[in-house]
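PROTEIN SPECIFICATION:
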Amino acid sequence: MSTWVTVWFVIGLVSAVAVAACLAGLAKHLLVLNRTLKVFQEEVGPVAAEIAAGGGRASSTASNLKPPTISKG
């Protein structure tokens, strides 16, 4: 009986170490992703703001336009 307890204890310990290693790898990848997203926002943010402002100007200009009149002749 003692042998089986030892075997299951070793299996559980190895499994716990494997799960901990996977979680550590996941945490590392999340940190890399976080840094990459910050760099992306710093580089793309000003361009996106400029595009959004241009879209707002285009929208206000389009709302002031009147449809053309078609004369039936």
